[in-house]
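Q: My collaborator sent me two sequences in one message, no labels, and asked for predicted structures for both. Can we handle them in order? The first one she listed is below.
A: Yes, handling them in the order given. First sequence, followed by its structure tokens:
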Amino acid sequence: MLRLIWNASGHTAAYLRAYMPSNILLDGIRSRSGLKWGIPAMLIAVPYFAFAYWCTTLIDAGGPGWLHLIVLVTCWSGLKFIVMGPVSVILLAKTRLVERRARRRQKRSADAAEGHQFVTIRRGRTRRAPTGYEALPDHEHGPTYLGRSSGALGA
């Protein structure tokens, strides 16, 4: 019996996840391009709670008892949208941090391939420092290329 209930609840959850409009919309908000819509999506909870309130007034006026199930589903969907707002902000901040770290890592590897190294200046901040000798193209260094001493001595 327990196995039957377990399987039925799993299949019901999979069906509702795939076909309920609120779950489809929440899956879209959880995607990378949809994270910015988490806070505005909190407003979608208002119609859900309004519909739940309307159903409760129908129940109080002598309506059928199965409306309690509708109230439960609409309140649950409304709460999901309210919670998704702050969660999407946290997920967006986390995703942007990961992307920033990846861009830095990529830039550092590109600079390392060009022969640059990074020097820590203070509080963990780094800057690019040249490694080796960076010559001007075609030896365009001018009279100081060989050093001042040879020109100053007249040799």
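Q: And the one she listed second?
A: Here it is, processed independently of the first:
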Amino acid sequence: MTAPVKGRRATPGQRLDRALSRMGAAGPFARDVVLAVAVAMVTLGLYAILVQIAPAEPSLQVTAADVWTMGALASAQGLLLCLRRVRPGLCMAAIVLIQLGIIAVAPQIMAQGLGPAIAAYTVGGLAVPRFAAAAAATAAVLETGMSAVATWGEPGAAVTVLNQLGSSALLYAAASFIGAYVATRRRNMAMARERSEQVLRAAREREESAIRAERTRIARELHDVAAHHLSGMVVQAAAVERLIERDPAAAREGAESIRMQGKETLANLRQVVGLLRERGGGDGTAPVPGLSALDALVEEARHLGDDVSFTREGEPLVLPPIADISLYRIAQQALTNARQHAPGAAVALRLAYEPQAVELTAVNGRARREPADLEHGGTGLVGMRERADLVGAEFTAGPAVNGGWSVRLRLPVREADRERRGVEPLPVREADRDRLGAEPLPVREADRDQLGAERTGSGFASGTGER
């Protein structure tokens, strides 16, 4: 049963389907029973009209009894239509046999009822074309042969036989062809609907995949921005907490630095959250960080008290924007992980432009003090690996040979991206110049061991937990 589309008027076929369903005729056999009874009643009514006309025509040479016999046989043909979809071959064979009896009773009338036409239509739609053609040809030959036998020796027999041949061949061939055409059209429409549904499903899947990818990207940005800035704020807040009574002036300077760091964090978070609100992805005024901003990133890390060395080797390459920002974010996350899991350790950051690739490495040493007690692991390594996969880079992370932690990313460079050009350092805003140029928070000699500010020594420890 085909449900009508909401907002459209139901077709006659849909209204008939609903009516039959209300009558309890839901399956194919039940509906064919209704059709068979209806055809039988219509056929009997037509022969009731014919019984008033045929006996009065001298050329037909039939009696009322002959017409009623033909009507009974034709009605039986109609009743056999209940098998048309359950046993289509058997149904047509039985109807053709009954048709031979009708021809034997009155060959000159050549009565072709509704039963043979509907049976041939069903076989044409359900059977393979070869079987349908053979069935139609067999039926036409049998009926023609019966007409020849019934009119043997009578005047005008040849004309009657030829008329029977043309009538039977035309009926069965046309009905079978129409049935095959309708069935083919239905199959094509079903395939078209299926293809349309597949296209819609594929479009929905692409849309959902794009949404998931966008959510993942935004989650990575939020994590990288928040983790980088907030980890520095935690370090400075710990120093302020210890210095607030011993050195109020230094504590005030630390609080001011925390305030500025918080403002920058809010600005960066506002830019990322703008991706969720506007189609264009925020107001577009904030610069997108890239490898040219690594110098500013290292200066910021040093301002927070980290011991970071940065080496750039080779001639800089102009990378695609997504690769440029991905490498920057991985370097940023590596510094954040070192600050959280190996506080006080020295970090060596290296960016090498090779002929066929760009390599970024970050190696930190052992922690100089106990890392913060994290309730659960973060998603730093997961985010870095996702960014590397996004740009087709090789990513490895794990303990270093010297006992610390190493992060390595190697990005192959396509020939189209091999435009070599000098990269200018990222311009620093005037508002940030004072902050980046400020001296690290002063620490008293008595507090060095407590705060872990000692950065000398060769021992390394990577810390615990998901980085």
